[in-house]
């Protein structure tokens, strides 16, 4: 199963292309990767969730981490969020702090 | 009732989760599969990560019962007594900048299921979750 991710910085924007899953087996690795971009003046973090079918609480923690710990309180975009995943965001109330974008 | 026994469980969370969600009882709950997967993920990772801090040979038993209306999953481990329902729930109204990062897993479990019960009996943590299922 394809569950990798790709992280790339473009100016003040951090682009994260997610795989099919963001769960306990890969979220810690993404968190480690995000840690490398701390305090680099990021204004926006974009999660491309086009392929994402499943997220666990460890994945949600990664999004909270991006907002809280990268510095500068960056905006969070979530591109092509599946309905099931949006429902999980709604349960936790974090959807209010995410810009959902359909492409 | 189906019974699955996993031992040892150290570093095997992924394997155990996949074994449970691929049982016929769970995999055929198409509409509820995402919720059941999420709950299995949260509860199994908790047991594997924390139940047996000093025992490499700990076990986890998962019992699955399904009727036409409801699916029940029961997770039993012989690790240290731990009632996850006593964990402080995250404040979902707090701004994202101020959120505590922990406690989300059991919170999501409670939100996804119709009932979640914990008891410590015969030296085991027993966590039982139930969810109403649609006919599929």
Describe the structure using short key phrases:
heterodimer; A: 103 residues; alpha/beta; Transcription Regulator spoIIAA; five-stranded mixed beta sheet; 3 helices; globular; B: 136 residues; alpha+beta; five-stranded antiparallel beta sheet
The multimeric state of the shown protein is: heterodimer
Overall residue-averaged pLDDT value of chain B: 94
Which structural class fits the helix and strand makeup of chain A? Answer: alpha/beta
Shape of chain B: globular
CATH class of chain A: Alpha Beta
> Rg of chain B to the nearest angstrom?
15 Å
Gyration radius over CA of chain A: 12 Å
Low-confidence runs of chain A: none
The CATH architecture term of chain B is 2-Layer Sandwich
Count of alpha and pi helical runs of chain A: 3
How many runs of DSSP E, i.e. beta strands of chain A?
A: 7
The average pLDDT of chain A is 93
CATH level-3 fold name of chain A: Transcription Regulator spoIIAA
CATH architecture of chain A: 2-Layer Sandwich
What structural category arises from helix and sheet content of chain B? alpha+beta
- Are there runs of chain B of 5+ residues with pLDDT below 50, and where? none
Q: Return the CATH class of chain B.
A: Alpha Beta
Total domain units of chain B: 1
